[in-house]
Amino acid sequence: MQTRLQLVSHPATREMRVGTFPADDPLDSRAFDELRAWRGRALIAGQAAQVFRSAATCARETAEALGLSAEIAPALSDADAGAWRGRRLHELAATEPEALAAWIHSPDAAPPGGESFRSVLARVGSWLDALAPASSSADAGMQVVALTHAVVMRAALVHVLAAPAESFARIEIAPLSIVELRRSREGVWTWRAAAG
């Protein structure tokens, strides 16, 4: 049987909508409205699932709004923005254009004191590979839900597809998206298009 993992991105926070690097932002009323509307049409394995989440406030509030009791998994944390935490993209484009351009395009570039995509890729890949494969019993396999951030979902896709780290810039993950991954008994991950 398979392990079925559904990675779910939290709704957009106000700070995301105005182009600000995250600083443990809570959900606002608009995000909660979007989450309520999305919940009615999303197909999340809820009841029997093992549920994990980022430690971020927006991930905790997403779990609570979905009625899911979730265990914190540090590997699901957003990329550390370092000195750029709480700063707006347009401000950085004016004051640190070369550093911002490198961060946008290079998996090895990081904000000052922050984390590169390659670092996120390493921690997410390790977490994925450490998830226990489904048992060989006749049940439907293990159901896992992870409430997290777009960059983590991008890293999961790059890892599962064994794509070059440089391909991260070509993957777009919208708020309230689902990426579904399946892991065989042999430990091989595959990506499966998911409704959401």
Written overview of the protein:
By secondary structure, the protein is of the alpha/beta class. The protein has a single domain (3-80, 116-192), classed as 3-Layer(aba) Sandwich (Rossmann fold), CATH 3.40.50.1240. It has helices spanning 14-17, 29-39, 57-65, 89-95, 97-105, 117-130, 150-160, and strands spanning 3-9, 50-53, 71-72, 142-148, 178-183, 189-192. It has a six-stranded mixed β-sheet with strand order 3-2-4-1-5-6. Helix 6 packs across helix 7. The radius of gyration is 17 Å and the shape is globular. The two termini are 24 Å apart. The model has no long low-confidence stretch (mean pLDDT 91).
Task: Offer a few descriptive terms.
single chain, 196 residues, alpha/beta, six-stranded mixed beta sheet, 7 helices, 15% strand, globular
Q: Which structural class should the secondary elements be placed in?
A: alpha/beta
Rg measurement, Å:
17 Å
Beta content: 15-25%
Series of secondary-structure elements, N-terminal to C-terminal = EHHEHEHHHEHEE
The CATH superfamily is known as Phosphoglycerate mutase-like
Major β-sheet annotation:
6 strands, mixed
Distance, first to last CA: 24 Å
Strand order of the largest sheet: 3-2-4-1-5-6
Total DSSP helices: 7
User: How many strand units?
Assistant: 6
List the domain count as a whole number: 1
On the 0 to 100 scale, the average pLDDT is: 91
Supply the CATH class: Alpha Beta
State the shape: globular
Enter the CATH topology name: Rossmann fold
Low-confidence stretches: none
Helix content: 25-40%
Name given to the CATH architecture:
3-Layer(aba) Sandwich
Pfam families: His_Phos_1
Protein name: Histidine phosphatase family protein
